[in-house]
Amino acid sequence: MKKRRDFLKQIAGLGVLGLAAAGAIVGGEALLAREETPLRPPGAMPEHQFLALCIKCGQCLQVCPYDAIRLEDLNGKAGVGTAYIDPDKRGCYLCKALPCILACPSGALDHSIADDVRKVKMGVAVVANENACLALHNKPVPKSEKDLIYKHTTVLTPKEKREKRVYELPNPSEKRQLQVDLLKKVEQYVGKSCTICADLCPYPEPELAIGMVKKGSGYIPQIREKCVGCGACVELCPTDVLKIVPHKSYEEVYKKARV
Ligand code: SF4
Ligand code: SF4
Ligand code: SF4
């Protein structure tokens, strides 16, 4: 939560005009009002309804193959056991069948959108710290990215984590396979140019959600209209450039900047 608080302080410091000028976001005050509202799982009803409907059963968490969903503890705002996602630790990867939604027995996660991940609306990504972007400065992805993805990959054995090496298992579970596939994709970028956020966005047509655009002698990510705020790019960015504004749409966050 500290990083998130810092980000929101940054928003307050910049002010709406500063953010618009930076091509970032608008609505700082409204966003600040949501400081303690975490990102909810895909399909979550509007916050007040979600809080009333979530029965804190943990079913969504149990079926998530990426272990993206967490349950609030005593420090949480909405009460012990309420489901949330911390994209700094693990984003959502928009599983095709949205098993988290289908597992929810109370309607807190809306079953009517489970047929298409394009209907998910968790929030929207913002470029919160453009200057830290490796692509802007043509810097390669550092080795620490490998450490990070190993840390986030929950299916590995202690030996695999220690040695930063994945061992082939004869019959890996689907969960292990998915997480290891992601790890391997990220690992390939170490020492190379960074386009991780744009390349690994799990939206079905990622170029509609995020793309790299030229800036000076480098590139920066540009968040686009179809971004659903899943937080995968936030988790995977090696230098903490991106953040999610939960519960906001692209229109609310970006289009106001142009008026
Ligand atoms: S869509 Fe998949 S990765 Fe995302 S929260 Fe649901 S089960 Fe987890
Ligand atoms: S840009 Fe892609 S990865 Fe990032 S939050 Fe949006 S949909 Fe998710
Ligand atoms: S993941 Fe994207 S935002 Fe982060 S350093 Fe790489 S190119 Fe820049």
Q: What does the model show?
A:
The chain is an alpha+beta fold. It has two domains: 40-120, Alpha-Beta Plaits, CATH 3.30.70.20; 128-228, no CATH class. Helix content is 33%, strand content 11%. It has a two-stranded antiparallel sheet. Strands 3-6 form a two-stranded antiparallel sheet. A hairpin with a 2-residue loop joins strand 4 (210-215) and strand 5 (218-223). The chain is globular, with a radius of gyration of 18 Å. The chain binds iron/sulfur cluster (3 copies). One iron/sulfur cluster (SF4) binds at residues 133-135, 194-197, 221, 237-239, 241-242.
Order of helices and strands: HHHHEEHEHHHHEEHEH
Distance between the termini: 32 Å
- Radius of gyration over C-alpha positions, nearest whole angstrom: 18 Å
The small molecules bound here are:
iron/sulfur cluster
Helix content: 25-40%
Major sheet description: 2 strands, antiparallel
Q: Into how many domains do the coordinates divide?
A: 2
Structural class: alpha+beta
Provide the spatial order of strands within the biggest beta sheet: 1-2
Q: Give the overall silhouette.
A: globular
Count of DSSP strands: 6
Average pLDDT, all residues: 88
Total helical elements: 11
What percent strand? 5-15%
Low-confidence stretches: 1-34
What is the topological layout?
Blueprint: H1 2-21, H2 28-33, H3 47-53, H4 59-63, E1 69-71, E2 83-85, H5 99-103, E3 123-127, H6 144-152, H7 158-163, H8 174-187, H9 196-199, E4 210-215, E5 218-223, H10 232-236, E6 242-246, H11 250-254
Antiparallel strand pairs: 1-2, 3-6, 4-5
Bound molecules: iron/sulfur cluster (3 copies).
One iron/sulfur cluster binds next to helix 9.
